[in-house]
Amino acid sequence: MQRVYEPADLAEAELLSGVLASEGITCHLGGRHLLGGIGELPMHGLLHLWVEDADAQRARGLIEAYNAAQPLPGPPDDVEQSGFLLC
C-alpha cells in the first residue's frame, strides 16, 4: 500500500475516500482514531489516505483533480424571484 494524501481534517478525508470509492479504488483512512488525542498529539499530520500500489497513481490524479476544481459561479442576483431552487 502507498500513502497518497494527507487530508486537512476528517471531513475532507471522508469526502476523498468516497471519491476514490466511487471510482472503484479501495482506500484506507489511517489516523482516524488518533483525532481524540489532539491537544496531546499534534493537530496536523494525523490523517492519511492509503491505497493499493496498483491504484496509487490514479488515486493521486483523482485527488489532484478534486483539489484543482473551481467553484461554480454564484447564483443570479434575482434568484429569489427566478423560481429556481438552488441546492
How would you characterize the overall build of this protein?
By secondary structure, this protein is α+β, with helices and mostly antiparallel strands. It has a single domain (2-68), classed as Alpha-Beta Plaits (2-Layer Sandwich), CATH 3.30.70. Helix content is 34%, strand content 14%. It is built from 3 helices and 3 strands. Strands 1-3-2 form a 3-stranded antiparallel β-sheet, with helices on one face. It is globular. Residues 1-65 form the DUF2007 domain. This is DUF2007 domain-containing protein. It comes from Pseudomonas knackmussii (strain DSM 6978 / CCUG 54928 / LMG 23759 / B13).
Secondary structure layout:
Layout: E1 2-5, H1 10-22, E2 27-30, E3 48-51, H2 56-68, H3 79-82
Antiparallel strand pairs: 1-3, 2-3
InterPro entries: DUF2007
Domain DUF2007: 1-65
Protein name: DUF2007 domain-containing protein
How many H/I helices?
3
Number of DSSP E strands: 3
End-to-end distance, in Å? 37 Å
Q: For the report, how would you describe the main beta sheet?
A: 3 strands, antiparallel
Strand-residue fraction?
Answer: 5-15%
Number of domains: 1
Shape: globular
**CATH class value:** Alpha Beta
Keyword list:
DUF2007 domain-containing protein; three-stranded antiparallel beta sheet; DUF2007; Alpha-Beta Plaits; 87 residues; 3 helices
What would a concise description of this structure say?
It is built from 3 helices and 3 strands. With about 90 residues, the chain is of the alpha+beta class. The N and C termini lie far apart (about 35 Å).
